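Format notes (please read before filing issues)

Several people have asked whether sequences and structure tokens are stored in separate files. They are not. Every record keeps both together, in the order shown below: the sequence lines, then the token lines. Line labels are part of the format and must not be stripped during preprocessing.
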Amino acid sequence: MVDQPSRRTFLQQAAAIAAAPHLASRASRRSQERIPYVDGLSFLPDDPASFRESGLTAFILDASSGETVENEDGTARYYRSFEACSKSITAVRRSLRDEIDEAFLATRGSDVDDALRRGTTAVFLQFQGCEPLGEDLARLDMFYELGLRVLQITHHHDNPFGGGALEVEHVGLTELGFQAVEQMNELGVIPDVSHGSDPTSLDVARTSTNPVILSHGAVRALVPNARCAPDEVVRAIADTGGMIGIFMMSFWLTTDPVPTVEHLLRQIRHVIDVGGIDAVGIANDYQITGHAGLTEVNNNNAEGIKGYYPWWQSMAERGVFGFDELPEHVVIPELNDVHRMRTIHHALEAGGFTATQVEKVMGGNWIRVLKESLG
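Then the structure lines:
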């Protein structure tokens, strides 16, 4: 009896066949032109010229908005309301249509090809949490029509859809959450488990018939913190044909006192070891131009980290896993600027990654997931 291929193997084989002409043509011209750079999560820059400076072919943009509210225990959280997100996604659409020539609203994975051809940047819209839906899944259809293509289940904390990572007790998807994932699959909205609890992430991976992503994050094997994904979650995401974007928040990349580019590479290598080369990419979680607060202090981490201490200490007081010691840094200085993708590209090459591996990590994996999920 011939063994049936696993879901991950089947998806990888299908994707490899579909992507072969693209990868072959890109490989043949690699010395003449740049490979595609794709960022798993960033924000619009103040200066549109930054799009070209960054070299980004595409990125996922957090188009959500909200306000800071106080929890019952006195801690603060950021709440994304329906009203606020309706306004913010409309404003982003207007900016991309009327004010920015260097980038455009992308709604299909194939829009990346248009961006490559035109030398512009394809922007895919995301919300960091299902809170804007309230408990009305009809709103998901509305936001889809407005261009939403990636949706996190939650942001740090529990909501009506599922459990957040930064809670003392972890819960998984609710009944509404399961329904939301099924509707995302039907519409063509990519489920994103960033900031979700481990049970929520695993529930989404088991439920989704399409690739699942953790758009921006890191791995718990290297940094023991609830915000970082354990190997079980890494494997589950990879088995859906999805991937993890390793981000720029250095206190979740390493516990060493001085963060370096090598710490980012260690995170990438770990995901490859656990989930395979197709399961990892790059994300940001700051503006394209970098963390402005750290730029203002010349990337002095000792100074820049101070602003995070009140929030970090509030998590420690609640007993959230991994917040018992104060971090010493916020960014990897060499990566906190608009040229980070080129710096990472060169570091991967210097670190022994093959040309094919570099292309996958820098953007090829994101392109595959976007095309498979969005057409």
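For reference, the curators noted about this record: The CA atoms of residues 132 and 238 lie 28 Å apart. The radius of gyration is 19 Å.
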